[in-house]
Amino acid sequence: MPLAGLLQPLLSQLNSGVVLLDAELKLVFINQFIARRADLQPEDVKGKSLFEVFSDLPQAWLQRKLHGVLSLQVPAFSSWEQRQYIFKLPHLRPLSSDSAYMAQNCSMLPLTAADTGERYICILVEDATDAYVYQQQLQHSVARLQLANRTDGLTGVFNRSYWQQQLGYEIQRAERYQHPLSLLLFDLDKFKQLNDHYGHLGGDAVLIEVARLVAALLRDTDLLGRYGGEEFGIILPETDLTGAMQVAQRLCSAVAAHRVAFEQQQLLATISLGVTGFTSGLSSDQLIQQADEALYSAKRQGRNQAVAWRDSQSVYLKKVK
Ligand SMILES: Nc1nc2c(ncn2[C@@H]2O[C@H](COP(=O)(O)OP(=O)(O)OP(=O)(O)O)[C@@H](O)[C@H]2O)c(=O)[nH]1
């Protein structure tokens, strides 16, 4: 059978890359699959160093691998999951991927010539771009779902369940490391009137805008969540009550000074805030309860203001008496 005569057409039609190297890592052969994508002529590269022709190769890593294959005479493998590609080649497919390069599974096989006993290495390059793209799409979908799962649909801040979970974690951290932690609850004032006057869409516009404004005034490490209809919570890690009151006053003034554009009108809104500091042994429910009591005091004292729980407690107790 004229096997040798068939090998060349077979290798050139193969839908995988074939790179044959001698023991000095010089190119003996590349097939059409590689040549076409690397824009090379197979006959031009014969006898040249692998790393000279393919200057983008991860040289130190690949040299180590190939020397291992030669000296141990065992195959080596590189998967796209560990290293997206070895040969920087375009994938030549109309796929929407965030990479223009072909993801590859590469096998490095030791070969010995039957007649001369000389040693060679064959690198087989398989295109794994499909798997790479599917994995990327899956990762993006999971990330989108995770985001949706912790986000309030209207305002884009954290939703209640995620925010409360974070409060639990922050309390554990504050307790363990004896770090300060404060909690702030705020609620839009007379929001029912605003809704009644401008309609639900006007109310929604105010909620969205206030959440955006408040988020912009907080630190990246602060956690803003929508606690209920027009009530929001802010966890302030590494912040004592004095610092939290400063934040609360800043937010209160900023919201009162802001105008929300809605259907050619400028809507005004104010917020009332209740602030409390974490002390050892408090649960998240107790902390929320304290902030809520302070918020209640702020409402009773005329709204558009911040009240710390320390102060409000006496007000609250007086009221109870
Ligand atoms: N537009 C809009 N309104 C909401 C939303 N969630 C809750 N609300 C409204 O917020 C209003 C809250 O009213 P109240 O609890 O009486 O409080 P308030 O009018 O803000 O009065 P104070 O809190 O005492 O200042 C109700 O009319 C709710 O329908 C929402 O997602 N969008």
From TrEMBL:
A GO CC term attached to the entry: plasma membrane
Domain PAS intervals: 7-73
CDD domains to which the protein is assigned, alphabetical: GGDEF
Listed Gene3D superfamilies: 3.30.70.270, PAS domain
Biological processes, Gene Ontology terms: cell adhesion involved in single-species biofilm formation; negative regulation of bacterial-type flagellum-dependent cell motility
EC number(s) given by UniProt: 2.7.7.65
Any Pfam family the entry gives: GGDEF
Superkingdom to which the source organism belongs: Bacteria
Catalyses which reaction(s): 2 GTP = 3',3'-c-di-GMP + 2 diphosphate
GO molecular function ontology, one term from the record: diguanylate cyclase activity
Cofactor(s) needed for function: Mg(2+)
Residues of the GGDEF domain: 179-311
Signal sequence coordinates: none
Classification via PANTHER family: DIGUANYLATE CYCLASE DGCM-RELATED, REGULATORY COMPONENTS OF SENSORY TRANSDUCTION SYSTEM
UniProt name for this protein: diguanylate cyclase
